[in-house]
Amino acid sequence: MTTPRLDRAALARLVDHTLLKPEATIADVAALVAEGEALGVFSVCVSPSMLPVHAEHIRVATVCGFPSGKHHSEVKAVEASGSIADGADEVDMVIDVGAAIAGDYAAVRADIAAVRAAVPADRILKVIIESAALTDEQIVAVCHAAEAAGADFVKTSTGFHPAGGASVHAVALMAATVGGRLGVKASGGIRTAEQALAMVAAGATRLGLSGTAAVLDGLDALSSGAVASGDAQQGADLGAEGSQVGPGSSAY
After folding, report:
1. pLDDT in tens, 92-124
2. Catalytic residue among 16, 92, 96, 152
3. Structural domain tally of the chain?
4. Catalytic residue among 96, 111, 152, 185
5. Among 11, 77, 142, 171, which one has the highest count of C-beta atoms within 10 angstroms of its own C-beta?
6. Is 251 within a domain?
7. Cα–Cα distance between 50 and 23 in angstroms, integer?
8. Which of 76, 96, 152, 155 is catalytic?
9. What CATH number does residue 213 fall under?
10. Is 203 within the bounds of a domain?
11. Is 122 an annotated catalytic residue?
12. What is the pTM (predicted TM-score) of this model?
């Protein structure tokens, strides 16, 4: 796997700068937006209750059916519609993971389609599949369901599932499955530049990060050769097939 050549600005433009902690305040979100603007990220991602958010130069994303996905499709659709009315440019919805594990991919597709109907075509819909909780076969099937239902992205994780967050293996499998027709967002426990670069090399076209500044600073350190050999080995280890951010990690 080839490590992509990205400078700080290029990597920042792949980032959804994220704050989904339940204790987040309006002041926290304002600080997130200010930091995101300064860092040059693609978007900020916040909880629906924190909308509307004023951001001048970056997009605003939110979540739907988060974090369990165990909501009626009609409820998810209403939530998504309300977020769009409140100014969201992008909606990251959570599937019913249990339906996927049970092999009921028609239900997964219908759930996604219900939210797609509530999110206009000029707004982005991302589908969170909780890849760490699924087998490879299930990941492939859910990606097909997301594409058939009209989603724009498939996304690895909420960051809240005990099975873990993003993995290089899952990102590569998802990217191969959607074949560039959909974007692939890696999220959940990505905290270093090495991890971020490994995800991009595997096929991620968007990254969900909460510690964005630390990741970008780490990229600067890598570029200047000021990173210790142990950190470089950590990046190599992450790039190994099947490697994964650890279970129980907090969101993003």
Report:
1. 999 999 999 999 999 999 999 999 999 999 999
2. 92
3. 1
4. 185
5. 142
6. no
7. 11
8. 155
9. 3.20.20.70
10. yes
11. no
12. 0.89
